[in-house]
Structures are given as structure tokens and as C-alpha cells.
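Hey, weird one. I pasted the Phytanoyl-CoA dioxygenase sequence into the form twice and got a warning about non-standard characters only the second time. First submission, copied straight from the form history:
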Amino acid sequence: MGNEIRLLTDDQMRQFITDGYLLLKTDFPQPFHEALIGQLSEVYRSEGNPGNNLLPRIPQLQKVFDHPVVKGALTSVLGEGYMMHSHRHGHFNNSPKPGGWHKDSYWGYKRMRNHRPWWAMIMYFPQDTPIELGPTGVMPGTQNYETRTFASDESAGEVTAAGEAGTFVLIHYDIWHRSTANLAGRERFMLKFEFMRTQAPTEPSWDNREPDWATPASLGASVYPHEAMWEDAWYWMSGKEAGCRIGKEADSAQPAGIASMLEQLRSDEPEHRAAASDRLAVIGSSAAPFGAAAALGHALEDTFEPVAINAAYGLARMGEEGSETLLRALQHGEPKVSRLAAYGLSVAGAAPIGGLIAALGSEREDTVFHAAFALGEQKDAAASAEAVRELAGLLNHPSERLRCAAADALGSLGAYRGAGASAEGVEALTKALQDSDAQVRFTAGLSLAKWGARAEGAVPRLVEALEDENRYVRAHAAEALYYIGTTKAKDALLDFLRPSRWCPTTTSASTFYP
């Protein structure tokens, strides 16, 4: 096993963007995994599930996350300086029944889910896990859907993480997944760890050889076409500006072809509508003179989510008319339409920023929630003192949900470290560390980590937060001190860590000797 990290290739990154997962493998020797399984079995038998203490209880696990394949995959997807989140869990599966399809929450908190890869998860299998032992199953291409879009036959299109010891599945955090049935009658462990991007990308962090997006030659049956969304993710992760997202087919679009797509958009078959909305989204502004903006505005209300997502990304490419359509949809009385409009507004460039700032004053809570998210995704908003100021003001709102959204958005703006984000963002997040709601407090700590050294003024409050009653407030405060990284912050973190050092060999059966 070499020490140099093994970055993902272009093909692997394209699969991750479209399918939402990659199946990879470490190359530890068998005795490593045998020892790891022995420790897991003993801990689960004598102590139960260690939960968030999984890593300090079994410190050998850190070798997994230092492995060149694991570090390379995480660096490729989340950039350098990614964070291992304090929530981690060991899953023990001995059930002969499959689990239910689900998306994970964010430690009990339901936040707006990102299409761009700000978050990822690793599910690691320390033992040989054939299909009969019940590996995790994922449904490719579903990471960007709130709804179940796959067939009633729950296994159709499913991919499992079956493989030898050391196999792991790297997933987009929001993909639909489940545990499969363990029919072998033996213990099966899966170790789940979460990771977060702390800096917005400025250049590719994978082994990038081809600068332009290209759709993989083959896609899974459950993967619907989303060219505009995939292009946005690729170029955003490459650190390139919005102008790079123009599809190559735009200039060659013919009126008859556009008319056919608009007709197909009214089909009774959801797959046909998804295909039509995808092509219109790729064509973008070239389709606008033929009424495409109005048609896609209506498609935002489509009951089949892939269609509505394509409509949002297509409108984002249609200039002022598209942005105005999305801003009106942001005020829609149906929350899912407002949410989808926010995804479009988050990738539409600087044009809608004024409208998004104005939407923060809406009386409709869903509108404010979604507008805050869209602003947080906007690099141009990070350079806007007004956007930062208005989001900071939202941290005084009576709604805990909106205060959380504002704290989250300010963190995302702080991650655009080359932008001139106002110091008001740090001041507001520092104050939010003492909010009455624990979710606001732990979101504020997580967001301050993204501001890096510019958040040094928050250090005294972060030190106080290390004694908070909530486990994630304490954990995020410690992470923020680490990522702020100044001497003052590091000294405060060391003062906290030294007396709280964990001894993995101290148990109720062996309290101090040998």
C-alpha cells in the first residue's frame, strides 16, 4: 500500500455525478480486517453500539480513513481540507428482512439538500460481504430526488456493496439506500462515516485530464437524464464560471426540433417528459424565443420530479426571462415548487441575487427558507455585502427553521474564500452560537469552520460552546477551532482535547491495569 493518495479519474467522477455512488476497495491485508472484526464483535457484545465514539473506541479504524484510496476518493469529491463529521455509526445487520428505502437526515435535522456535492458518505465493510450477507443497497441516480422515482419492484436497478473485506461505497449523501436481507445467519458490520466540504472548489481536485463534461456511455435504468444539472456539478467542481455550462447542442438547435420537444413535454409518459425537459434545459436560451421559458415554468409543477428538476435548470439558462420565472415560482404556494425554483436560482448566476435578497423579506416561510439556500449556493452572493447582511439579519427571525437556514447559507458563502464575504457573517454566526435552539447553535459552529482564519474573532464563543449540553454543538465548535487554524484557535482546541483524551483500552472490566 503506497502513501500517495489515489485520486479519482474523470470517468469515476462522471459516474459519481450521474449515479451518485462509487464502489471502491482498500488493499489492507486480511489480518487487519480479522483484527478489526474481532474488536467490533467484542465491543458490540460487551458494550453495545459505540455510536459516535466508534473511532476513539476502535482507533485502528483511522487507518481506513488514512488509506490512499479512501483519502483520494474523498479529496476528489470534496476537495482538500474536507471534514470528517462527528456523527458516525456502526451498523450491525443480522436481519433476514431488507430494510426500507430512505435518505439519511442530518443528525436529526432536516436541512435543504444540496445537488452540488457538499456532503458525502462512506459505508465501509470490514468483512467479506457476499450478497447473502446483506450489503447496503443504493438506487443509482436518486441522490437529487426527494420523492421515490424508482419502480414498485424495489430491487429493480439496485446496486449492492457486495465485495471482499475492505470494500466501501462512496455515496452522495442524499442518495436513496437501504440494508438488504442478511440470509447467511452471520454477523455483518457496516461502518458509516460522513464527510463535508469546507471550501468551495477553485479547480478540479480529482485527476482531471478532460476539461469538458461528457455524459457516461451507459447509465443505470433508474438514472433519468439531467444534462444541465450534471454539467453544473462538473464545472462547479472544476472551479469554473457559469458561462462554461452552455451545452454544445445549443447553437445547433432547430425550430422544428424545439417544437417537437415542447410537444413531448405534454406527454402522458413521465419518461418522455423527462427526456424533453432535459433537452430543452441543455439548449437553454436558444429555446427561449419559442416559448420554452413559459413551458418550463409550467413544468416546475410536474408531479414527476425529474421533469421539474430539468425545468429548474433549464430556466436558469434562459437569462432574465428564466430568472424572473424562477423568482415567481419561489413564491409558489406549493413548497415543492418553491424548493425546485431555488435549485434553479442557485445556479442562475448573478442576475437573480437582488430578487433572492428581496425574497428574504417574504411572509411565506418556505419562500424565505428556499431563498436563503439559493443565496448560499451563489459565489456572486458571497461577494455581496448586502446578501451577507440580510442573511445575518435573518438570524434574529423568530422561526428556528429560518435561523438554521440563514446559518447554513452563511457557512456556504464563507466557503467561497476568494470572495469578499462581509465580516458581518462571522459576527452573526458567533452570536448564533448562543441561540436558544440547539440546531441553530450546531449549524453556526459548522458554518464557522468554513470561514477558516477569517473567523478568529469567534474563538472565545467557540470555547464556551465546547461546554454546550448538545453533543453536536460541542463537536462542531471543536471542528471550527481546528479549521480556523490560527495559534489562538489551536491553543484553545488543545486545552479542550488534552483533559478529554479517550483511552480505548479502558473498560468496565479493565479500569486502569494492565
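That's the output from the first submission. The warning seems to come from a hidden character in my clipboard, not from the data itself. The first strand starts at residue 21 and ends at 25.
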